[in-house]
Amino acid sequence: MYKAIIRPILFAFDPEKIHHFTFGFIKFVHKIPFVSSILSRVYTVKDKKLEQNLFGLNFKNPVGLAAGFDKNGELFNELSAFGFGFIEVGTVTPVAQEGNPKKRLFRLKEDRGLINRMGFNNKGVDALVERLKNRKTDTIIGGNIGKNTQSDSDQYIEDYKQTFEKLHDVVDYFVVNISCPNVGSMAKLQDKDFILELLNALQAINHSKKKQKPILLKIAPDLNDQQLDEIIEVVLAAKIQGVIASNTSTNRADLKMSEAELDKIGNGGLSGQPVKDRSTKVIAYLAKNSNHAFPIIGVGGIHSAKDAIEKIKAGASLVQVYTGFIYEGPKLVKSINKEIAKLNLLHTK
If we measure between CA atoms, which residue out of 309, 245, 305 comes closest to residue 281? Predict the structure, then answer.
């Protein structure tokens, strides 16, 4: 029904506008008595084979919603009814910002992908904290943090520290986003020494807390082997809990969309099916060359259970969906979990 009827209607409108419309609709239907419990029964797969404990958290299943979908934490309670094992909010910055000028979100229908240059548009960390205080779900919530676009280079670490401090009591884990191609002045965040300095600063805050929260690093799919080796070194040196592989890509190779159409779209991060193989290769490289020293969350191009299983076999412990969720609909989460449980994949890989 979703792909045959609902998706064609949604895809007839501007992607960003329909995103906001969908949020409003989901909010509305969840106010109807019993809708949330009905959706949960339809989409949630409960099976001990899906459960695992990673970095001190008990995941009821390995399928999460990636950051960017609910960046302001407006819908995480409602979205938990669709069977997710965890939901990541953000990317959030210290101060609210509009992001890049519109139009900034584009569908590549034939490629089953998206290009976005949103630019960390969000309502700021204080607004997110207030929403998370009204948390009604027991689904694990992660906080994806970034810097404000207009911050000077000597303020970058302070931006991350401020957001980390404010979110610490209301999220279950953190993701340090250093890899978004849609925010200006990100080059410094690719420097190994700077990444280590940043992570150590966040760890210092973490260690001062009564209860420490897991920290993960989100990386790009376009890194070469030397850069991936440096990521492994940094993760181990900073003693953070894991890596999310991967963010969106700036690579436009092998797309079905014409170069003329791509030129009209312009810059932005590519997600969906076109980045599937790249992100899986990054996962495999990190897992092998770190000797499976830390958990990896696999994200990028997951449109089916088969895609998710490829990532888990490559070395991912958890997976996240975003573009695939938009293209395939909420049944995607259920189908992935059913197949993973059927294969007992988490305990036999």
Answer: 245
Residues that are catalytic: 180
Q: In the block, which residue shows the tokens 């299943």?
A: 61
Q: Which of 237, 119, 240, 127 is nearest to 176 (CA)?
A: 240
Q: Is 177 annotated as a binding residue?
A: yes
254 is in an annotated binding site: no
The neighbour count for residue 81, using CB atoms within 10 Å, is 22
> How does DSSP classify residue 101?
P
86 φ/ψ angles, rounded to the nearest 5 degrees: -160, 155
182 is in an annotated binding site: yes
Any idea where the domains of the chain sit in the sequence?
40-348
CA neighbor of 183 nearest in space, from 217, 220, 142, 231: 220
- To the question of whether residue 188 is assigned a binding role by annotation, the answer is no
pLDDT in tens, 55-109: 999 999 999 999 999 999 999 999 999 999 999 999 999 999 999 999 999 999 9
What global pTM score does this model have?
0.94
The CATH number fitting domain 40-348, selected from 3.10.450.50, 3.20.20.70, 1.10.540.10, 3.30.565.10: 3.20.20.70
Q: How many other β-carbons are positioned within 10 Å of the β-carbon of residue 71?
A: 21
Cβ–Cβ under 8 Å, residues 61 and 306:
no
